[in-house]
Design goal:
five-stranded parallel β-sheet; alpha/beta; Rossmann fold; DNK_dom; single chain
Amino acid sequence: MNFLNLFDNLFFNKKETNDKKNTKIIVFTGPIGVGKTKLANFLNEYLIGGGKKVFFDIEITMKIEKELKMYYQFLEKGVKDQGISFWFQDKLIDEYKKFYNNIDYEKYDYVIFDRTHLDTNFFTIATINKDPYIEICLPYLKEKLDEISFRVKPDVINVSVDKEISIERILKRDRDIEQKVDIDYYELIYDMYDNIDEIYEFYYLFNNSDELDDNLLKKKIIGFFNHYIN
């Protein structure tokens, strides 16, 4: 079922406001296990090394570690309680709003985000897809998302890998809470990102399927950034 058609673009919010300083916002987005965080770290190191002032922090889900662990425990046990999904997404949206409001954009040349509030659309639609949750919860979450906007229009890097590679990387990396969750969940989220143009109107596609060592991967993302964005 195409949940995006089902909800008639209920969640999609692309607002931005003007900022006094010519600060650039760089967004890394993509499914779980595609390497967003590593690439964002490489770009952060490069920009700081070039004398730029950069704001970069961990993905927001990692800031609510206790709630994230609880959410994955339900996934691990196969509990498909859509109320749990609503609780977690509601908490996550609140954290995004607080996070954005606490950034002093005028201090920085670049602000790097590892996913944004817009990415919650896919995780919400994937896990809240039955009545009465569709009727009651989704409009509430949409209203909260509509209250959030970017300070300036972001440059979005959509990190892409083959589905099999993303699953393999999830299973290999050192995140215990991810290891016992059914692979179907990761595949569902991966498929959701086929509709990425519904939440980001423009993005640059970065193919991260090659198994490169860190030095080569760092050179690749820096070259990509300088060619398309900088």
